[in-house]
Amino acid sequence: MLHFSRLKIFSIFFLILIGFIYFIPNFLNSGTSYLPNKKVVLGLDLQGGSYLLLEVNSKPLFKEKLELKSFDLRKKLRAERLDYENFKINNQEIFFDINNSNKVNLQKILNSNDINQKLNESDKELSFQINQNTVQIKFSEIYLKRIKKNAMEQSLEIIRSRIDELGTREPTIIAQGEDRILIELPGVKNPKKIKDIIGTTAKLTFKFLANNDADPNSFDKLQSKNNSETYNVEKKLALSGEHLTDAQPGFDNLNNSSVVNFKLDSFGSKKFAYATKNNIGRRLAIIIDNKVVSAPVVRDVIATGNGQISGNFSVDEANNLAIVLRSGALPAPMSIIEERTVGPDLGKESIDKGVVSLVIGFVLVILYIFLNYKVFGLFANVSLLINLILLLAILTIIEATLTLPGIAGIILTVGMAVDANVLIYERIKEELNIEQNIIIAFDNGYKKVLTTLLDANITTLIAAFVLYFVGSGPIKGFAVTLAVGIITSLFTTFVFGRLLVSIYVRSKKDKELKI
Amino acid sequence: MINIYKEKISFLKHYKKFYFFSLILVSVSIFSYFTKGLNLGIDFKGGTIIEMQFNDSLSSSKIRSSLIELNLGDVKVKEFGDDKTFLAILEKKSGESNFISEIKSSLEKKLNNNINFRRVEMVGPKISKELTQTGIYAVLIALVLMLFYIWLRFEWQFSLGAILALCHDVFLTLGAFSIIGFEFNLSIIAAILTIVGYSMNDTVVIYDRIRENLKRDSEIDLTNLINNSVNETLPRTLKTSVTTLLALIAIYFFGGEILKGFSFALIWGVIIGTYSSIFIASPLILIFNVKRDWSEVIDNTP
Predict the structure, then answer these.
(1) Which of A152, A295, A436, A473 has its CA at 20 to 30 Å from residue B230's CA atom?
(2) Partner residues linked to A131 by β-bridges
(3) Percentage of chain B exceeding pLDDT 70
């Protein structure tokens, strides 16, 4: 155990040298040409920033799709002259009653491709059940999954473009699970603006206000933006926001307020021109997310496809509205289910305190070890220092994120890494008591302690792995430093430390040696 | 220097007393856990916490009463580091974009002070439920994996002994948090898992020695053998605990407020982990009566 071939010695020092090369740039302010440019990535809790977890609520989307489907279905049933009764629709299902004689026909319709589209070899859009006279139709599981997946992909893209427009520094926006989006915004101290623009679905529609003598079933009552007024808005759509090609914030000098100017595509322009031409004098409600933003009177035909939304906006509101309209509507509303924001000053303070406690902990530990083991303690302490360097180097190389619990993990590693040394030295002490030959005693000590060392550290590694796989954010950072720390400490004590000891012991030859 | 480790200490002689002592501690912990419960942080309960820093020193009760007027549900405020920095724990949680900024502006108006929101964490009900679940799973999965590993490497008696000692440590840690009332959050789960790893590490070192001695000597009385093993590994057990504690104490006193609970859990865990390896895990091998014949089995069948 005390013999090292030249190649081995060379490899050990080579590894440590590589460690140094990756360790040093972490303490340089500017990059150099001869060292790698990587630095350990600081978690949001250390560099400051905002973490948001969003959830896509697909239920309204399912309902919307089901309503469209029911519309098609009724049309088809009428076209086929198939009588039905009690047509009902709830959040997930369509129900209606039919005559017995129509069952075969209905089955044919419900299996036809224009009502129930084939998704692949074996799956279809709808699943249905006919119990006696009652028909129950709903979307198949696989189709719901597909809707969900599409909504998720779209939402992700829209959220990305909205956040990009705000000019945030290096945001991370990724999907998490089936229906969640994780956003990390380094350096953002107050995420209000971000929350504003992702909390808006931005579903824009234009509908005329109902005339006074209109049928109560033909209009909905909608609130104004600030809930101060209620409007009777026709159910019939004049134009939907999909036809928007651009939206920009602007200023209306006449009313002295911020506005949003928009442009429509050619189809939208035509439709808008047609709608305004036939309704001059009526009020057109501009509706965003089921709230009436404004309801101006149509004074003339609008044929250019350009329009203006006014609604007593502040400059910020107009800016945000332009961004969300430009990026398009989210397919489904989203809500923020978790937020963690740390200011940059607190992050800085955490780093400073972490470093101070690391230094103090380190000094206490090396003093204690030196007092206990003298020369050999010195070797253990050098190993410990190399351990810290390698630990940080590996964290840098694997691009792990260093978090506040991660720093605690490093300090904990300082305490625990000594364990390997203590185990070895105590064992050698025992061996020295029974064995005359010093070299053999040292050799036996290292040999006998290896299984213990592995067994003991593997159990801690198990804990670290479990933490990594089930933990989130900062906890993951802790698990990574703990796991890497165990591995580097085994190397520095059992390999590097052994090398130092072997050089020393062999230089002493047969003289008295005490640990 | 006199070597205090030269004298053999008979750890096993009084093991029943220590079991009785531990039984009381575990009972008290479980009792407190079920009556007083844990002071669950927002990670597991949902809610909002805000670390706020004021220009001037203020009292927490004044901040609390101002916050209560805002209808945020249950409100707790405590000093956090110095008398200008406070931690507000609010029952209400909301993803609305105005939620936090409105709290800030109305608090600034009411207290007539500039406030810096240094840290804001909001956890919705769905997430807190998930975090609780994953927290419990994490500890259980780790225990099962270790049980399996020890069983693989040792006899079942060791495996069972180690796990019982670990459960002892976990109960006592939960009990300490329940009795003292420190906030129990995600990082405490991380601390508990680390304690589990550490205590296991300690136990394995002693068990390893017991196994080695069992192989070497099949004549000696089991009580003596275990006692010798504990004594032989004692210097290592104590020195490692001391170095780990030194590092942890540095975090506790200098690492800042956020790491206080975390480092407390670890300090407590190292102490009881060391205690349980010596006084709980080792005598269990005696109780479970591990097999004595460790010579290689020679296959004699023709």
Answers:
(1) A436
(2) A134
(3) 94
Please name the residues between 3 and 42 in chain B that touch chain A, using a CB distance below 8 Å. none
Between CA B67 and CA B110 the distance in angstroms is 9
Q: Rounded to a whole number, what is the distance in Å from the CA of A415 to chain B's nearest CA?
A: 4
- ipTM score of the complex? 0.88
pLDDT the model gives residue A33: 77
Whether residue A353 sits in one domain with residue A429: yes
Q: What is the pTM of this model?
A: 0.85
Please give, rounded to a whole number of angstroms, the shortest distance from the CA of A479 to a CA of chain B: 8
Indicate the CATH number for domain B15-40+127-288.
1.20.1640.10
- Is the Cβ of B55 closer than 8 Å to some Cβ of chain A? no
* Set of chain A residues whose Cβ sits within 8 Å of the Cβ of B101: 190, 192
Q: Is the pLDDT of residue A496 over 90?
A: yes
Q: CB of B48 within 8 A of CB of B121?
A: yes
In this structure, the answer to whether residues A85 and A148 fall within a common structural domain is yes
| Topology of the domain comprising B47-123 | Alpha-Beta Plaits (3.30.70)
Tens digits of residue pLDDT in A306-362 = 988 988 888 888 888 899 998 888 999 999 999 999 999 999 999 999 999 999 999
Instruction: Tell me the two tokens of residue A192.
Output: 């209000």
Does residue A287 surpass a pLDDT of 60? Answer: yes
CATH number of the domain within which A209 lies? 3.30.1360.200
- Please report the pLDDT score of residue B54 as a whole number: 93
Of A170, A199, A228, which residue sits at a domain end? Answer: A199
A377 contact B CB<8A: no
Q: Is residue A330 part of a domain?
A: no
Sheet containing strand A204-208, strands side by side = A239-240, A204-208, A284-288, A291-294
- Predicted confidence band at B176 (pLDDT cuts at 50, 70, 90)? very high
Structure tokens at A237: 């759509």
Is the CB of B212 inside 8 Å of chain A's CB atoms? Answer: yes
Contact A357 B253 (CB under 8 A): yes
Shared domain check, A127 and A179: yes
CA-nearest residue of chain A to B205? A452
Query: Which of helix, strand or coil describes residue B142?
Result: helix
Task: Name the minimum distance, in Å, from the CA of B149 to any CA of chain A.
Answer: 8
Mean pLDDT for B207-211 is 93
Which A-chain residues 159-218 have CB contacts (< 8 A) with chain B? Answer: 190, 192, 195-196, 199
Scanning A51-124, the segments in alpha helix (DSSP H) are: 59-79, 103-111
Contact A418 B209 (CB under 8 A): no
Residue A122: the pLDDT is 84
Among residues A199, A229, A247, the one where a domain terminates is A199
- Tell whether B192 is within 8 A of chain A (Cβ): no
Verify that A393 and A427 share a domain, yes or no.
yes
Is pLDDT of A175 > 70? yes
Determine the structural domain holding residue A178 and report its residue range: 49-199
Question: Best mutation site among B45, B186, B244 for testing chain A: the one with the most A CBs within 10 Å?
Answer: B244
Shared domain for A296 and A441, answered yes or no, is no
Strands A204-208 and A284-288, by their bridges, are antiparallel
Whether pLDDT at B298 is above 60? no
Whether residues A440 and A497 fall in one domain: yes
Q: For residues B80 and B45, what is the distance between their CA atoms, to the nearest angstrom?
A: 21
Q: Over 50: is that where the pLDDT of A367 sits? A: yes
Instruction: Kindly report, residue by residue over B274-288, the tens digit of the pLDDT.
Output: 999 999 999 999 999
pLDDT on residue B2: 38
Number of structural domains, chain A? Answer: 3
Q: Is residue A54 located within the same domain as residue A192?
A: yes
**Contact residues, chain B, for A432 at CB < 8 Å:** none
- 3-state class (DSSP) for residue A243: helix
Nearest CA to A459 out of B196, B237, B268, B271 is that of B196
**Residue A358 touches chain B, beta carbons under 8 Å:** yes
Do A132 and A219 reside in the same domain of the chain? Answer: no
pLDDT at residue number A312: 82
Contact B72, B103 (CB under 8 A): yes
Percent of chain A predicted with pLDDT > 70: 99
pLDDT for the residue A510: 62
Helix, strand, coil % over all residues of chain A, rounded to 5? 55, 20, 25
Tell whether A355 is covered by a domain.
Answer: yes
A353 touches chain B (CB under 8 A): yes
